[in-house]
Amino acid sequence: MRSPLLKIVMTFYGIIGSTLASVLVVVALVNGVSGLWPLLGAAAVGFVIGLPVSYFVAKAMIGD
C-alpha cells in the first residue's frame, strides 16, 4: 500500500522537476552555454534538485 505522501510527492515532482530543469537550461543559455552536454547537465541537475523540493513541499502541505 502506497502512502498518500508518496503520491503527492510524485505528482509535484512532475511539475517541479520539469520547471526547475527548464529554468536551469534558460539560465545556462543566458550565460552563453551553447553545447549539448552542458545543457543536458543543467536539465539533469534541475530534475535531481526537484525531488527533494517536491518532498518538502508535499510534507509542508500535509503538515507532517
From TrEMBL:
Keyword entries, A-Z: Membrane, Transmembrane, Transmembrane helix
Organism listed in the record: Aliiroseovarius zhejiangensis
Protein name: CTP synthetase
Membrane-spanning parts: 12-30, 36-58
